[in-house]
Design goal:
957 residues, alpha+beta, Isoleucyl-tRNA Synthetase, domain 2, Nucleoside Triphosphate Pyrophosphohydrolase, Isoleucyl-tRNA Synthetase, Domain 1, 29 helices, 40 strands, RNA-binding
RNA sequence: GCCCGAGUGGCGGAAUUGGUUUACGCGCACGACUCAAAAUCGUGUGACCGCAAGGUCGUGUGGGUUCGACUCCCACCUCGGGCACCA
């Protein structure tokens, strides 16, 4: 008989709410050490109006962990709230004529009920809603602390503007050049914006990661986002002028190869130079077009380089005093480095392409080094010749066979006074027979270390790569005039075949340089660099920087965080503008600066917030001089709201401060933070910054440290049954409510726990059949507990034998160990499997009510309602969810026999049961006595016998 | 292009200080119960060869180390994620 999940789940949810068992008390520190408190945090939801499968996955599975911690005796804080400000509320308001506040709070009421139907052990008494004035008062207050410290500032910058949502976006909110929310193409716009100096914290956010015990992939993604790169800042003089152009480069060693410079179209210097630019009109036209391009257009242009030279002026390369041209091009960005670069076409791919297109000079200053340096090397000059048949587009290669390096191009030494072209022609003719050739291009010298196997010597060669084209009159198949012809065969390879088959470092480098047109961006030996010639290029970085008076410098990809939003539904930025006194903090006693009620929420295309229309609200007295002033009309990015909510949970009702220090000390830092991978470089990075900035402002108790989350785990995502992301348009959306109605919350939770490993970035398709397996399991638990459908407590008709009891005790103890450890690791799937194994066992041999109680306790975090029901039916008065987590007997998790595996030459031939402490000699004796072994050995004598205690015997013959 | 992560039955997945590949669940097949079906219970289930005993192959591909490799090393392929004209 299946159990009645509707009745049971409703009953216990009511009961738990009534008895408030999940409300967490703050304990006085003296008799309640921090170690006994445990803070489990899940990312709070946005009140979109309906709970989807993702929410179930995000909340009900970590609930298993929270419940287990509670049973372990921890005082667990497991709070929930709503991240309630944000665009969708406003868009709904505009579309359906609803008040954003009403819409939001209506959704919250509905979703609160839905979340409660999970049977999760959230402490609802600490609920936090970021759009409550009691909450955003403190968001504003903390913002003002940052403002006073200069961390929040206003600046006119180029910002990402979403033309559809009519608001600015942070870099993190752009996906592929489009608005993350609505998908519209993002434009660049100059606007005055409030920003937070997250860049001041770039290094700290980076190094802070080292001490965190998070998964490496999460840390790596943040490191990538911060994007630290080390290099130098070097100044270039402009000829005959006082102006200087500062550039940032990671390759100061290539300074002698800088043959031109590029300024970003937005570079301020251009306007200063206007009078001297002879082609000003052309330049201005280019800048105009470039500025109008959206980020997407800049990317869509297939990276085709564009640019205009600033005619009439020249820069001076500080290394060799050479005069070089200055260009404007949109492949250089104002937002990174200094907005200007020195271009080294020989050693940077982008500069190389630009130089090729506009016919600019290229100069090699670093010669590549390949292979490994060996002792007693013999020096030689040589060539590598790539012969192309321009009709077929194929390249001539020689296949020497796998031993001698596979496919290579023609290569060989330069004899005596020969030049490289002559040497190459001679080698080509000798090895292939071709002689009508046209030289197309030549590479720089490449230093290559290798072993010449045929002559058994180590070599250091200095190789020149040459690209020849076969002249069309040479059609005859080549005839080899070489006695060595037996050794190799000629093959014509296409480009892709070359890349696939020519593995030699030197030869493939020549091909990439000459045929694919790749610039050499690696390190090597300095040339054409005056007194630095011959130096190792890595070493030259510092030396050359010093030589020209440059400065070693670090750059970050991370940009300051733009927090202004030109929209209604957010926390007003608590700033007042006075004509005389400028931007001032709203007085603390006036906080919160309440969001005014207005009628028209529509955003405006002039970049002003709808708040600008709330005239009464807008006008205030200047807090300094008392004259008429105006409020800031932008609101704060919702990522600001969510940057500190975990602190408010510690003390959610406090009216005097954002949270009492003592209460923060109770809970912070968060012991475990579970959330979605999509927040790794947004919320997770922002809130770390916010917390560090609060820490520096003395708002966080010192002893807590400056990192808010001790452990962070990202969960995977649940896909539709078809293995695709769930979406309405695909019609593959799983409605959790439907499954809860059909199978119950316990089944849905447990199925989600079972579907795959939780703390991995994987994605798991929802299998409508699969969930049935979990329901079957729970039905079997139910049936096991009530064998005759009525009374509980009798689990078996006949008494089990002593051996059976021993076996079961072992199985039970092993399960206790496994389930406990798996929950700790978030391996809920294998924990569920262990519970299934134990039930299978119990169904075979039965279980005393005592042992069954242990099973129930292990099940309780996964299926809280069912476990509670059966627990109470066993006659228990108190909730199972505060029962102590079962302990296992270490002696009983070990077996006293094991199956000894017998291998012959590593292949399994036999197996049999032996005692765990069996000696090697005894194991060998038993093994050799086995019929199967004798048969398999066929009278061969064992050469060696390997014995692995507790595992196997391997006979080597 | 660069940086992470992963590739195991029909499917989700299990197993790594190198030691029985495929636990658990789904699906499928057969059987029991039933007038029948569903539900439930039982048995089987990597591929190939074989009546069987048994054998051969098998953890993305190709090499290597080892008595022994899903696990370690080298080269590559595919998928997922992050970054990307970042100087």
């Amino acid at each position: 008989m299946p159990y009645d999940h509707k009745k049971i789940e409703k009953k216990w949810q009511k009961e738990w709410e009534k008895s408030k068992i999940y409300e967490t008390n703050d304990q006085p520190k003296a008799d309640w050490p921090r170690a006994r408190n445990f803070y489990v945090l899940v990312e709070f939801p946005y009140p979109s109006g309906n709970l989807h499968t993702g929410h179930w996955y995000a909340f009900s599975v970590p609930d298993i962990f929270a419940r287990k911690k509670r049973m372990e005796g921890k005082n667990v804080l497991f709070p929930i709230g709503f991240d309630a400000f944000g665009l969708p509320a406003e868009n709904a308001a505009i579309k359906r004529g609803l008040n954003p506040k009403k819409w939001t709070y209506g959704n919250i009421d509905y979703m609160r009920k839905q979340i409660k139907s999970m049977g999760a052990s959230f402490d609802w008494s600490r609920e936090v809603i970021t759009s409550d004035p009691e909450y955003y008062k403190w968001t504003q207050w903390i913002f003002l602390q940052f403002f006073k410290k200069g961390l929040a500032y206003q600046a006119e910058t180029s910002v990402n503007w979403c033309p559809k949502d009519k608001t600015v976006l942070a870099n993190e909110q752009i996906v592929g050049g489009c608005c993350e929310r609505c998908g519209a193409e993002v434009e660049q716009k100059q606007m005055k914006q409030w920003m937070l100096k997250i860049t001041n914290y770039a290094d700290r956010l980076l190094f802070g990661l080292d001490k965190l015990n998070w998964k490496e992939e999460i840390k790596e993604a943040q490191r990538n986002w911060i994007g630290k790169s080390e290099g130098a800042e070097i100044e270039f003089r402009i000829k005959n002028l006082e102006f200087k152009i500062k550039v940032f480069t990671t390759r100061p060693d290539t300074l002698f190869g800088a043959t031109y410079m590029v300024l970003a179209p937005e570079h301020p210097l251009i306007s200063n130079l206007k009078p001297l630019i002879s082609n000003l009109k052309e330049v201005e036209r280019y800048i105009d077009v470039a500025k109008k391009k959206t980020q997407l257009q800049r990317q869509k242009a297939e990276k085709e380089k564009t640019g205009v030279e600033l005619k009439g002026i020249k820069a001076v390369n500080p290394a060799n005093k050479e005069e070089i041209p200055i260009w404007v091009a949109d492949y250089v960005f104002m937002g990174y480095g200094t907005g200007a670069i020195m271009a080294v076409p020989a050693h940077d791919q982008r500069d190389f392409e630009f130089a090729k297109k506009f016919g600019l000079q290229t100069r090699t200053v670093v010669e590549p080094v390949t292979g490994e340096l060996r002792e007693n090397e013999e020096f030689r000059k040589s060539i590598v010749a790539v012969v192309e048949d321009s009709k077929t587009g194929k390249f001539l290669s020689i296949n020497w066979g796998p031993k001698l390096g596979g496919n290579l191009f023609v290569g060989g030494g330069i004899d005596g006074a020969e030049n490289y072209e002559a040497a190459a022609c001679r080698e080509i003719q000798e090895e292939t027979g071709y002689k009508n050739l046209k030289l197309v291009s030549v590479s720089e010298k490449i230093h290559h270390h290798y072993v010449a196997f045929s002559k058994n010597v180590n070599r250091n060669i200095n190789a020149t790569g040459l690209h020849f084209q076969l002249l069309n009159n040479e059609k005859t198949p080549p005839r080899l005039e070489n006695t060595e012809k037996e050794k190799f065969s000629l093959e014509w390879l296409s480009k892709t075949e070359v890349l696939d088959k020519v593995k030699d470092q030197l030869h493939s480098l020549v091909f990439r340089r000459l045929i694919l047109g790749e610039a050499y961006a690696g390190s090597g030996i300095m040339v054409n660099s005056g007194k630095f010639d011959g130096m190792d290029s890595e070493k030259a970085k510092k030396t050359i920087t010093e030589f020209v008076g440059g400065e070693i410098k670090t750059q970050y990809r991370l940009r300051d965080w733009v927090v202004s939003r030109q929209r209604y539904w957010g926390a007003p930025i608590p700033i007042i503008y006075c004509l005389k006194d400028g931007a001032l903090a709203a007085p603390e006693k006036d906080l919160p600066v309440l969001l005014p009620e207005i009628k028209d929420y529509k955003p405006r295309s002039d970049g002003k917030s709808p708040l600008a229309k709330a005239e009464k609200w807008l006008k205030v007295k200047c807090p300094k001089c008392g004259s008429v002033a105006e409020r800031e009309t932008d609101t704060l990015d919702t990522f600001v709201d969510s940057s500190w909510y975990f602190l408010r949970y510690c003390d959610p009702k406090n009216e005097k401060e954002f949270a009492q220090k003592r209460k923060m000390e109770n809970w912070m830092p968060v012991d475990l933070y579970s959330g979605g991978a999509e927040h790794t470089t947004m919320h997770l990075l922002y809130s770390r910054f916010w917390y560090e900035a609060m820490f520096d402002s003395g708002l966080i108790p010192k002893e807590l440290g400056d990192e808010p989350y001790k452990d962070r785990r990202n969960r995977g995502i649940i896909l539709g049954p078809d293995g695709q992301k769930m979406s309405k348009s695909k019609g593959n959306v799983i409605d959790p409510d439907e499954y809860v109605a059909k199978f119950g919350a316990d089944t849905v939770r447990m199925y989600l726990a079972f579907i795959g490993p939780y703390n991995e970035a994987g994605s798991y398709p929802w299998n409508p059949q699969g969930i049935l397996g979990i329901r079957r399991f729970l039905d079997r638990v139910w049936k096991f507990a009530s064998p005759r459908g009525k009374t509980l407590g009798v689990f078996r008709d006949s008494t089990p034998s002593v051996e059976e009891r021993g076996d079961f005790a072992r199985a039970l103890n092993k399960t206790i160990k496994k389930v406990g450890e798996d929950i700790e690791e978030f391996h809920f799937n294998t924990a569920v499997s262990a519970l299934m194994v134990l039930l299978n066992e119990m169904e075979k041999v039965g279980a005393s009510s005592e042992n069954f109680s242990v099973f129930l306790k292990l099940l309780a975090p996964f299926a809280p309602h069912l476990a509670e029901e059966l627990w109470s039916r066993l006659g228990n008065k108190a909730s199972i969810h505060f029962e102590p987590w079962p302990k296992y007997d270490p002696k009983l998790v070990e077996e006293n026999t094991f199956e000894l595996i017998i291998q012959i030459n590593g292949k399994v031939r036999d197996k049999f049961e032996v005692p765990v402490n069996i000696s090697q000699s005894e194991a060998e004796r038993l093994t050799l006595a086995r019929e199967k072994v004798k048969l398999a050995l066929e009278n061969r004598k064992p050469r060696k016998i390997i014995f692995v205690p507790r595992r196997l015997v391997n006979i080597v013959v």
